[in-house]
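Materials and Methods. Structural model of DUF4191 domain-containing protein. The 233-residue sequence of DUF4191 domain-containing protein from Streptomyces lavenduligriseus was retrieved and submitted for structure prediction as follows.
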Amino acid sequence: MARKETAADAANAGRLKQIALTYQMTRKADKTIGLVLAAVGIGTLGVFLAIGFLIGHPVYLGIFGLLVALLATAVVFGRRAERAAFGQMEGQPGAAAAVLDNIGRGWTTTPAVAMNRSQDVVHRAVGKAGIVLVAEGNPNRVKTLLAAEKKKMNRIVADVPVHDVIVGNGEGQVELKKLRTTLLKFPRVLTGPQVTATNDRLRALGDLMSNMPLPKGPMPKGMRLPKGGPRGR
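The predicted structure was written out as tokens:
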């Protein structure tokens, strides 16, 4: 019994610490977060108390209003914390991969399946919507990366739809904060077993490429790489 109580106390302390850290991070980007949360909590509680006095049940409405105020405060805090996090991630290399890692169950993400020397990168997500290629970097350069990767996917898994998304704030691009929503809006056309089979095929291809034997020592003079060979990621 004591062990269970100790574990529960540790879990609660961990949650409180995480909330505190999230608040500190949010406050760096949103200086008014404290005032906003206080206004939401006090305002919500005040409305329920006023209704309670009007109908003659201030205690009951006060207790109910306190619970609603805590819920409303938590919702507002979550949204503003998410907005602050996206604001700090915006424009950072690998930001799209971080969002994809937290897209939710049913999706398998593989970061940096293609990359060029300018650090433009393409990530891959596989779910019931099919394959989604997510590119971040210079819009003009990533189009070439996307086209090559999409061609490869169509050749390997021709029966699976392949979508492509470019993360950014320009025309035809998807903002980082809307990336998760965009992927979840794609129509679901695959079943669970089909998603598993697709991941297995892509994983097998990756293992095959990583285990491919390469000649040791310097390349013989005059020898050229064959056209269409694997490109560096």
